[in-house]
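Project outcomes to date are best conveyed with an example. Our students and postdoctoral researchers have been running inverse folding experiments weekly, and each run begins with a structure described purely in tokens. The record below, which covers 146 residues, was selected by the lab manager from last quarter's runs and is presented without edits.
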């Protein structure tokens, strides 16, 4: 894993944590965090390693996303991804929890992690579907490579 991936991951985490200060207001920060996590997830094992390495910060970020997602309306975000704030929060919750598979969905647009994986693959070419099948194998592959 390179330093850039960790920097982007931590920037995404900090953006998520900052959502606690803007509850019930629309923001583009959710999209910025999604873009950062997509860049990190180009190497899915790096995402898992960073989630493990920064477990406390990741869960703080998840909690902030959860609180924001449950307090916000589904304001549409004017960005290349589209969708609304609650949809963005569902995607962020997915990025912050593939290792635990404790997924939270805030709207009906995304009802399963598979739907989010399909969106990410179509939009950014990031395929995370195998994370849903066998997390242990992914971690094993990553640790044997490093």
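After processing, the design step wrote out the following sequence:
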């Amino acid at each position: 894993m390179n330093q850039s991936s960790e920097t982007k991951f931590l920037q995404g985490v900090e953006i998520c944590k900052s959502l606690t200060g803007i509850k019930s207001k629309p923001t583009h920060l959710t999209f910025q965090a999604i873009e950062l996590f997509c860049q990190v997830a180009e190497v899915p094992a790096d995402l898992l390693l960073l989630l493990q390495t920064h477990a406390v910060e990741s869960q703080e970020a998840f909690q902030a996303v959860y609180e924001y997602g449950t307090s916000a309306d589904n304001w549409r975000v004017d960005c290349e991804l589209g969708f609304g704030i609650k949809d963005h929060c569902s995607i962020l919750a997915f990025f912050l929890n593939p290792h635990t598979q404790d997924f939270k969905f805030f709207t009906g647009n995304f009802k399963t992690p598979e739907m989010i994986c399909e969106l990410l693959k179509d939009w950014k070419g990031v395929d995370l579907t195998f994370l849903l099948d066998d997390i242990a194998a992914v971690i094993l592959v990553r640790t044997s490579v490093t």
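Residues 136-146 have pLDDT under 50 and may be disordered. Helices lie at 3-18, 29-40, 44-53, 55-71, 85-96, 113-124, 135-145. The training component of this project remains on track.
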